[in-house]
Specification:
This protein is an alpha+beta fold. It has nine helices and 18 strands. The longest helix has 24 residues. It is globular, with a radius of gyration of 23 Å.
Length: 369
């Protein structure tokens, strides 16, 4: 059905589309007073500040106990749950689960070394694995209590003499969608040496297999993450998708993503696409709008269908992004307010990398559904 109708939306297979999407951060009208166009020196300073903040925050994130333990649990320890044979029948992904997994964000900041494995905490098979799982030198052992929660205990670091980490899954609820049990709520907390270092709360609102939304809230002091997504393919020949993501330290926002995408399917080979989005990194705000038919993605000039600009969060204009054709490829350039142009990946390498990752995640999620 939708998969077949959206084959042409496989963005990764079209280099021009990938370039178009490289800056997909909303074009949002701004009516602030007392704003100005920054000169080149001022613009470069704002960009440098944002790059430095990404580096600094990345280092702070990976240094927290909450981040390190969730990463260790997800990537270093063998899963306790798959050792139970009756679980295997529950974890075979259905078509709905594959679609629904657009919500299990693998959230990336400055580089691929920073990953949050939220999918490890959204247990579709919660009811099959309730009780306590203890790590021993010979592997996992299982006790049937408690009967309403899932508790996992293991040592951290690996050589620690006792199981000083406790992961508790609780407040689970679910609903049936096309005969399959689908989680609608679950909470998780991680305690390290009797101190809470990580929490996750997941919720979902599911109308049916074609219309649902999810929310994930995560804390690991002093950081807090919130991610909300919704998808609606219940209207004939329409795909509606929205995303709102925030990352804060001590209650202060330093990174966010907002995106809205509407696809209107005209036939099996063509669709109208409207994208608006905004991305904030430190003091910078990227604004973009794309409105075009997919046929224009194949043959058109991206500058005719993409509006992409950079502002400060205070409303001052830093510059615009333009596409320049070089050796039959479109290359993204940053254009200062003076008119001078420089390659975006040269001027802002970390920010540009973040661009590509955001767009790649967004369109891979959409094209898979």
């Amino acid at each position: 059905m939708l998969n077949q109708n959206l084959n042409f939306m496989k963005m990764k297979k079209n280099s021009m589309i990938a370039l178009l999407m490289a800056g997909m951060f909303a074009f949002v009208a701004c009516d602030k007073d007392d704003t100005k166009n920054l000169n080149k020196d001022e613009a470069q300073q704002q960009i440098t500040n944002a790059e430095q903040e990404l580096i600094a925050k990345s280092g702070e994130i990976v240094a927290t106990d909450g981040y390190k333990i969730q990463e260790y649990f997800a990537t270093q320890l063998p899963s306790p749950f798959y050792s139970k044979s009756n679980v295997l029948k529950s974890v075979v992904p259905s078509n709905f689960q594959k679609a629904y997994e657009l919500t299990r964000e693998s959230l990336l900041l400055e580089n691929p070394e920073i990953d949050f494995y939220f999918e490890h905490f959204i247990l579709w098979f919660f009811n099959d694995v309730k009780g306590t799982w203890n790590w021993t030198p010979n592997g996992w052992t299982h006790e049937t209590t408690p009967t309403d929660n899932v508790v996992v205990k293991f040592p951290y670091p690996a050589g620690n003499a006792s199981n000083n980490v406790t992961v508790t899954y609780y407040d689970f609820s679910s609903t049936l969608v096309d005969g399959q049990t689908v989680p609608t709520d679950i909470k998780v907390k991680i305690e390290y040496n009797n101190t809470q270092v990580f929490t996750l709360a997941y919720s979902a609102t599911i109308a049916n297999i074609e219309k649902f939304s999810t929310k994930v809230d995560v804390t690991f002091s002093p950081f807090a993450i919130s991610n909300e997504e919704s998808i609606d393919v219940s209207v004939n020949d329409k795909v509606l998708y929205s995303k709102k993501f925030t990352f804060k330290k001590d209650g202060k926002l330093f990174y966010s993503e907002d995106a809205n995408l509407t696809i209107t399917i005209l036939n099996e080979e063509s669709a109208d696409v409207l994208i608006t989005a905004k991305m904030v990194i430190g003091n910078l705000e990227f604004r973009l709008k794309i409105e075009a038919n997919t046929n224009e993605f194949e043959t058109g000039n991206p500058n005719d269908i993409v509006l992409l600009s950079l502002y400060t969060t205070g409303g001052d204009k830093v510059g615009d992004f333009v596409f320049v054709e070089e050796e039959r490829d479109w290359v993204l350039y940053f254009k200062f307010n003076s008119g001078e142009q420089v390659k975006a990946e040269t001027l802002m390498p970390l920010v540009s990398e973040r661009f590509f990752s955001f767009i790649d995640d967004l369109f891979s999620n959409i094209s898979e559904n």
